[in-house]
Protein 1
Amino acid sequence: MRTHPALTLLAFSIAACSAGQERDATPGGFADVGGDSTITQDTEPVFDVILDSPKMDVVSPDAGCATSSAEAIKPPVDIIVAIDQSGSMSEEIAKVKTNINKMSEFLKSTGFDYRVVMIARPGTDTFGVCIPPPLGGPTCGDNPPTYRRAAQEVQSNDALGLILSTYDSTNDLVKWSGSLRPDATKIFVVITDDDARQPAPSPYWQTFDNEILKRGAGTFGTAAKRKYVFFPICGASETDETVKCGTGMVNTGSQYIELTKLTGGKWYPLCAVDFGPLFLDMGKKIAGKVACELTVPKPPTGETIDPNKVNVSYTPSSGGAAKELVQDSSKPCDGGANGWQFNADKTKILLCGSACTVVQTDPGTKVNVVFGCKTKVE
């Protein structure tokens, strides 16, 4: 069996059309063709693969195409949390420590490859941030590679400035750039009852955007295509960004809300009595943000993938028969296409329209990308 790099993202299948192949479906593995059996091959190569996941299945041949499938790694997500530790935040800090595991447990249950960086002063006191297992490590420590502390105290107005200054700090206790993956979508969660007053000049959200895009040689994307999204928990009402959600809020957090609008995220009211449902919803929104873009796996050395012989189907998390999608390249994916299409350099498969909606609302959906048979088009 030849090996190629581990498949990333949801579920991928690799197959080839071969008139001489005979296989019967065997649950949980490749079909048993017998000790003396041979598989003949005409002109299309069979791509054998070794995946990170041990689960492999064979689905029924269709029109002479033998299809093998495996559930692969879902898209990587790096979550950066910065918590305001000023004197008015004791109650909210307690809610974060009690409930943040609900977000991470949801992402884990749906198979997403996630990491969390916590920018805050660690400690077991009222304003210290100690995240318990399973996300955090024992005795308030790190839990590599999933959880990393950036031991920097955050106050009322400096969260955005500290995100920038700690990213590649010369102080190893606060530096967190090494915990990020270049290909991961970055999620920023700022938790505060106030608003940003840095980095200068004003508007601070715009200066932050300009500066974060300079970090990490494309780690956070470009102005044309950002790879980061804001999900702040701030003082604004859930339905009206100009109104405080409660009398105890210092500010609505307008700078964070502008970043939320810019990046297509969502803000949450700090006044929520229970942060559990809030973090669970955030986990679902994070999963939905990255669910519709699948990386095309590389073929074995010396082989090529014919883009005219690619098909896509999906199976809901509840099970049942796979549902086929057609390729729709008649218009942009965000401009009305419904089905799937390649990105410009054919390195990714984009789910469009109702197909994207399905995997966004059901992050446990299994998506199959099948190679070797003529593409079904709209």
Note: The two ends are 35 Å apart (CA to CA).
Protein 2
Amino acid sequence: MPPTTIPQVPPSAIPAEANPGIHETIVSLRGVSKVYGSGDTQVVALDSVDVDFARGRFTAIMGPSGSGKSTMLHVLAGLDTATGGSILIEGDDITGLLDNDLTRVRRDRIGFVFQSFNLVPTLDAKANVLLPMKLAGRAPDRAWFDQVVEALGLSGRLTHRPSELSGGQQQRVAVARALVMRPAVIVADEPTGNLDSHSSGEVLSLLRSAVDQLGQTVIMVTHDQISAATADRVLVVRDGRIVADLDHPDVDSLAAVSR
């Protein structure tokens, strides 16, 4: 996939209401471990990980298959439980929450974007975007909805059903659905994995725009160096540990640490 050129918007150009407290810590992992099995079959997926993620930044997590990168994402997003350590979202420890409380955290404070778009085929794009708010019994903020839809280029597609949209457009709807809830953080697990190179470039551009134009925080898992180079920061994971923490790396730098 060819590199995607994405315009950079300086922090001063981001509306203050969309980006309060830019670069404050939004997610923290402290001594987080995840162990599967026991005895001879024990697998340490995460090994006492300490890391902070800042508000208003795009962080990519990459590493080989089995490195622990997806486990890290799932644990910090409350999709899986840690064996040890603590996970804080906006200063609140989610590690020991009961299922109902954890469900509310995932619904209200975390936006999810996956390889599978998870759109309801019988609903149009607008209804799919607003579905989480409807399920939560919350009225949408019309101004914010319009801003998200315009930023992601969906204004002319709101009445289309998923079958009438391209793969890239469907992923745009999925990202808009995550954004409209105003989550503390968006987590994206291989969001371009099911897309062609053109659509992949579109999705990376819109995740970049979500950070630059809407002040969102994005944490993305990817195996692709070009995709990772879209981010502000790249964590390289191997054997359940962070082995490199790179600021605005280029593809060559990522290739060197991935060998």
Note: The CA atoms of residues 11 and 212 lie 7 Å apart.
